[in-house]
Write a structure and sequence with these properties.
heterodimer; A: alpha/beta; Pyruvate Kinase, Chain: A, domain 1; 5-stranded mixed β-sheet; elongated; B: alpha+beta; ATP Synthase, domain 1; 2 domains; 8-stranded mixed β-sheet; 8 strands
Chain lengths: 295, 133
Amino acid sequence: MASLKEFRNRIDSVKSTQKITKAMQMVAAAKLRRAQESVESARPYAARMGAVVGNLSHSMTDQPDAPQLLVGTGDDQTHLVLVASADRGLCGGFNGAIARKARELISDLIKQGKQVKILCVGVKAHEQLRRMYGDQIIDVISLREHKHIDSNIAGSIATRVLEMFEAGEFDVCTLVFSKFKNVMTQTPATQTLIPAAGSLDEPAELPDLGGACYTYEPDEEEILNVLLPRNLSTQIFQALLENVAGEMGSKMTAMDNATRNAGEMIDKLTLQYNRKRQSMITTELIEIIAGAEAI
Amino acid sequence: MTDKLHFSLVSPEKELFSGDVDSVTVPGSEGDFGVYPEHMPVMTTIRPGAISVMNDDAERRIYIIGGFADVTQEGLTILAEQAVELADLDPAKLAQDITDAEEDARDAKSDDKREAAEENLDTLRSMQDAMNA
């Protein structure tokens, strides 16, 4: 039987754990609000960009000299999977869900006999994937030193992907990230980044031009050459922002649960502690009374 | 058809402006052009410079760096990498930034750094020009 002191120690340690989880929950809640704002304010740009790309690709996809970024290399043998996850743990099933999604995708591709390369953005996915696909992982980009996700980070990742694409290191690029729906729900999602035409779920609706012809200045090809790389970094940026918001949401929920569990544990331990104390007092009393009667 | 132009200016971080205006002058890469309501559809890249938004005889000038202008039947959309309201800029601070940038360009140790500093300097100078114009 544990002594009273042991009970007291356990209660104390659970209490301090509860304090930590409570603090983490509040920090996550504050960060979540900011992250949510930035996701929402970044959405119009990404949406517009998508619309413009969709618009342009309509007129370009049939042409033989369409940029490779748009229509692909004509091959799909080598896949680059960009796995974006969080950099820290203690956020429930968030990283696990992303890693699972990535694993499904990768094993599917491998079954089809494709060659797969993995680029991890955020260390947590790397930790989970390296056991199974250690050889395929080409690099890990940690976001830990960046306090705040800005478009430059996304830009540098996009540049890296573009360099690899131009060097012919892969044909198709897919991004795995977590879509932020609300605080409770984040759904892991995949998105095809290259070829860009493949990322459009349905043919973008053409704006009603009223019979007029679109004028491109300079020509379509030059615009696409500028637009497509920017589109890539925009999509990555958007995904990173969604991830941050999702991570914080998930962390808040996880820490809320942890705090509640700690509370329950404290109640249970306190009850046990009190029972023990009472039974000890009762035993002592019985001993005294018995002793007095014996005299 | 309305006699106002729907104009929205978005940067990667947020939507900076959205609303109806009389006209917008855009520094296209092939030359400045004015967009009025019912302009024909145009898609163009933008060189760094100030756009001027006219509404009810009031002018707002916003300096934008890099991006696209897309004119459709619904209106004008500008996707800018960076955008700064010229009225918010402080001439003294800008002059100071230019001096700093000049120093950076002079003291740069590697070619890469010098190039970056010079680019920065060009941007700041053209910002100053736009403000004085």
